[in-house]
Design brief:
By secondary structure, this protein is α+β, with helices and mostly antiparallel strands. It contains seven helices and twelve strands. The protein has three domains: 117 residues, no CATH class; 41 residues, no CATH class; 126 residues, no CATH class.
Length: 303
């Protein structure tokens, strides 16, 4: 349940989503297991997992939803091997080379026949909706997977007015000033021990610093040599640590103030109460963190 990464969206209008109406909307895209002809399936599942039927977990004014992605594992090497065998047989039978569209047709047939035999694997995307803050957070930093998740949400909820957070001040610009020492780091933030420096004029040229003292003269010298800091580890109010990149995506989120409860010491308590408590704790931390970080970078950029 605990988010390890985050992509943040803001509502263009006041959020009017309610747990009851959202629950009804998600039902149309509820998860269904892949059938014998499908390579993948994606849909909403209960955030609490097995034993629960609710697609929306509402607590303390926040809403948590969860999507499941099920994919059949069909390696390209296996497809290629079966194709090669069939092409060889056909070429010997027809006494000519198999080319172009014929190869594509063979590949389609191979995929169709192997799909029912392929194993499946599942992954999950969580979404935290914070109506009062006007924010929506996806537990993923992969642009492709975040886009898939928000697309599913838009299919479920008509006219969903959300947009990725972009701030008035770019992350790389402020990171670089902090590292150079030309701009003071806000009191509520502490620079961590990780960053990435990228050349302005060379896309492939970068330096990754890990477990380093970013305030050292050696690291500062790198930031004055024309490189921009595109990724930086930070700690907020000694309760959360994370790595923020230039796309305003959060990575490696860790709750440093109180370790997430895995339930081992609360076996006798109601699982729903434990889950509810953990969701509330995380949501309250995020409801403070994300607005504060947005403000540090000058607020949400106006169109």
């Amino acid at each position: 349940m605990w988010f390890k990464s985050a992509s943040v969206f803001h509502f263009l209008n006041p959020c009017k989503l309610k747990p009851e109406t959202l629950e009804e909307s998600l039902q149309s895209q509820a998860f269904r297991a892949v059938n014998s002809r499908q390579l993948a399936s994606y849909g909403w599942v209960p955030p609490m997992g097995e034993g629960s039927e609710q697609l929306v977990h509402a607590t303390s004014g926040f809403m948590l939803i969860k999507a499941r992605r099920e994919e059949r594992i069909l390696p390209s090497s296996v497809i290629a091997e079966h194709m090669a065998e069939r092409i060889q047989i056909l070429e010997q039978k027809l006494d000519r080379k198999i080319r172009g569209k014929e190869k594509l047709d063979i590949r389609d047939n191979v995929v169709m026949e192997l799909t029912p035999q392929a194993f499946t694997k599942s992954s999950y995307d969580q979404v935290l909706i914070m109506p009062e803050q006007g924010l929506l957070v996806v537990d993923n930093a992969s642009a492709k997977k975040v886009d898939q998740c928000t697309s599913l949400l838009r299919e479920s909820v008509e006219k969903l007015p959300i947009k990725p957070v972009q701030t008035e001040v770019g992350q790389a610009a402020l990171f670089t000033r902090w590292l150079k020492g030309t701009h003071k780091v806000p009191n509520e933030l502490i620079i961590g021990d990780e960053c990435v420096l990228q050349d302005d004029n060379e896309i492939a040229g970068y330096i990754r610093c890990n477990k380093q003292d970013l305030t050292s003269d050696e690291i500062k010298a790198l930031s004055t040599s024309g490189k921009q800091v595109t990724r930086m580890a930070l700690e907020s109010n000694e309760t959360l640590s994370f790595v923020l990149d230039e796309e305003f995506a959060f990575h490696k989120i860790k709750f440093t103030d109180s370790a997430p409860d895995d339930g081992s010491d609360m076996a006798d308590l109601d699982p729903r109460a434990v889950f509810d408590s953990n969701v509330t704790l995380m949501a309250l931390e995020f409801s403070t963190l994300f607005p504060a970080i947005i403000e540090v970078f000058g607020g949400i950029k106006e169109d």
